[in-house]
Amino acid sequence: MTDAPPLASPLALFAAGFGLVAGAAAIGLGVQAEAPAAWGLGAACLLQVPPSLHLWQRIREGFGNRGLDRERRTLRAISHLLRLLALGLAIASVLAWTEGRSVRPSLTGSGLAAGATLGFLALWLAKRRLVGRHPSLDLDVARLRAMVELAALALAGGLLGLVVPWAGPAAGLAMALRLFLEGRTLARGTTVSLVGCGGCGGGCG
Q1: What is the pTM (predicted TM-score) of this model?
Q2: Residue 146 to residue 159: CA distance in whole angstroms
Q3: What's the mean per-residue pLDDT of the chain?
Q4: Which keywords are on file for this protein (predicted)?
Q5: CA distance 22 to 41
Q6: 3-state DSSP call for residue 130?
Q7: Cα end-to-end span (Å), the chain
């Protein structure tokens, strides 16, 4: 068994709640404004909810072997969904670019992207202290860093859209590449890091 720091459990639960709220808001705004970067960010936020909830459960169980297979299956499924999202976002962004559709920047969209960036940045900074405690916590910190980068890309696309009309689709393409890389990294993590905590290390229980 591994004893996680006291703040690890509430932080995991808060990350799940923040991802749910930010994701729903971003998808709604992105669909309404036909902004691929916005709904792509929203979908990525929602895909962080299941891993955060599973992490919360595993922390409560002391990282015992009982939840190891469940966590591995969840992360493997999320890795596939992230790569599918990357493909869909890339196609939508290319279509928006080639069709000459520009996303009209709005204070609401920029404010949402800024809020997501700050929120995930705060979570990432708070959880960086947990690195090295357990492979599951390390993967969680890496996922939060990816979310910071995705939200920052969406924010940059919205702000640059005030000057150049193709900034939104370009941000969507950059986000698609980051999503694909994150999905591939997450898939490797399920077969390397998590397998390692099922042996005689601190994750035994």
Answers
A1: 0.85
A2: 20
A3: 85
A4: Membrane, Transmembrane, Transmembrane helix
A5: 9
A6: helix
A7: 5
Cα separation, 33 vs 134, whole angstroms: 41
- The first and second tokens of residue 112, run together, are 């949402």
Both structure tokens of 66: 């009982």
Rg (CA), the chain: 18
d(CA 24, CA 132): 32
Separation CA 122–CA 56 (nearest Å): 18
- The residues spanned by each domain of the chain are 8-196
From the list 33, 47, 36, 41, the residue with the least C-alpha distance to 183 is 47
pLDDT digits (tens, 9 = 90+) for 89-142: 999 999 988 876 655 656 788 889 999 999 999 999 999 988 888 888 888 999
Query: What's the rounded Cα separation, in Å, for the pair 121 and 151?
Result: 9
Determine contact, residues 40/32, Cβ cutoff 8 Å: no
Among the listed residues 157, 124, 122, the one whose alpha carbon sits nearest the alpha carbon of residue 39: 157
